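Hi V.,

Quick status before I head out on leave. The structure for the redesign project is tokenized and pasted below; the design run finished overnight.
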């Protein structure tokens, strides 16, 4: 009897645990151990909320709707980053419950000339200064005790003790040597506790492979210098976008910048989390929400086309950075954990070009 009772309790606990895991695995993703090595005796795992809100969005709306991941970048400008800090302070949400991603420019770059022209006194050619500037502007809180080892070297202006959760190289520099030099600055920033994890953005498969080869070379002298995340344009009907970046100001959605299945596959193989920007086709200029197949599947599940487009990503363990100022839209985007697309519907969406 006692044994049967124990089994029932264990079974119930297991089922409850499994349910919770299923729910959480649809909303958060673990970053690969080793991708965020910290000089700390007990490195903890880092989990990233899969859905983030980006530029020109209302971050208070996002936080009120339950979103906990915010995406920004040095080149988005001072006002954007200050407004994130204000939204966080207004929300009264603990810093530890939030996940903040920022990005630093890699200059000179072939991707977009305007990205290397700074609108403030910080040079877009100095990744350490950019990261420091973003952290200061957002006024982020103090890091956990494990970052207490931070040294001031190279970050003399960092008088506050803020940190971000993820710092990405926003795009590659024109030359690989410069890209690698900027990436090493991020490795160093992570080891100093200015960011918990690092990654890259707008890297195609061959560049990502070149980076992986380089960071594993003894010359870099660091295990665990692999990127934890790659953030590229990616969406239903936009992997890559049919226009290949043409007509877009800064080539969002082009093959050249990794908006491809090949890059996604490499990321999965290498244990790097793939994060899709433009998941609804916004700046990548892809018609996602108007596609007949997307609308048909949305109707079948009693969901909106936006929810189907987001679910298609999340179900492949791909994160998404959207942008909304609309409370209804924010609530919809964050409500993709409670349904599952059948394999046939996933395949139909994957086949859209
Ligand atoms: N790494 C990079 O180089 C890079 C490049 C570009 C962008 N990004 C990041 O990615 C973010 C998002 O890019 P994006 O703007 O192209 O994203 P997107 O999600 O493809 O498009 C956003 C648009 O979708 C609409 N929307 C959002 N939720 C919706 C819903 N539930 N139903 C219908 N429409 C909805 C928004 O309008 P409403 O406001 O009306 O909701 C907005 O116009 C940027 O803000 C930025 O943070 C990164």
């Amino acid at each position: 009897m006692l044994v049967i009772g124990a089994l029932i309790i264990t079974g119930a606990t297991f089922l409850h645990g499994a349910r919770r895991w299923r729910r959480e695995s649809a909303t958060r993703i673990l970053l690969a151990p080793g991708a965020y090595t910290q000089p700390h005796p007990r490195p903890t795992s880092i989990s990233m909320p899969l859905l983030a809100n980006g530029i020109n969005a209302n971050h208070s709306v996002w936080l009120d709707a339950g979103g906990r991941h915010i995406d920004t970048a040095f080149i988005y400008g001072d006002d954007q980053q200050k407004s994130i800090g204000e939204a966080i302070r207004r929300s009264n949400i603990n810093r530890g419950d939030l996940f903040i991603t920022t990005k630093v420019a890699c200059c000179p770059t072939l991707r977009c000339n305007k990205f290397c022209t700074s609108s403030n006194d910080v040079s877009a050619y100095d990744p350490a200064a950019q990261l420091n500037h973003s952290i200061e502007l957002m006024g982020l809180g103090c890091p956990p005790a494990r970052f207490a080892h931070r040294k001031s070297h190279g970050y003399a202006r960092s008088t506050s003790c803020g940190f971000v959760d993820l710092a990405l190289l926003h795009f590659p520099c024109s030359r690989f040597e410069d890209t690698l030099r900027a990436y090493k600055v991020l490795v160093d920033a992570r080891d100093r506790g200015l960011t918990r994890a690092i990654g890259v953005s707008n890297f195609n498969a061959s560049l990502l492979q070149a980076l992986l080869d380089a960071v594993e070379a003894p010359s870099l002298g660091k295990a665990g210098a692999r990127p934890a995340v790659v953030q590229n344009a990616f969406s239903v009907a936009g992997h890559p976008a049919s226009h290949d970046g043409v007509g877009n100001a800064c080539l969002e959605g082009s093959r050249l910048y990794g908006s491809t299945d090949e890059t996604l596959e490499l990321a999965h193989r290498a244990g790097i989390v793939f994060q899709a920007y433009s998941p609804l086709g916004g700046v990548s200029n892809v018609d996602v929400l108007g596609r007949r197949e997307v609308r048909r599947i949305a109707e079948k599940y009693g969901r909106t086309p936006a929810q189907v487009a987001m679910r298609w990503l999340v179900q492949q363990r791909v994160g998404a950075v959207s942008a909304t100022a609309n409370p209804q839209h924010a609530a919809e985007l964050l409500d993709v954990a409670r349904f599952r697309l059948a394999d046939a519907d996933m395949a139909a969406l994957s086949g859209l070009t």
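Above is the designed sequence. The CA atoms of residues 220 and 312 lie 37 Å apart.

G. will cover questions while I'm gone.

Best,
W.
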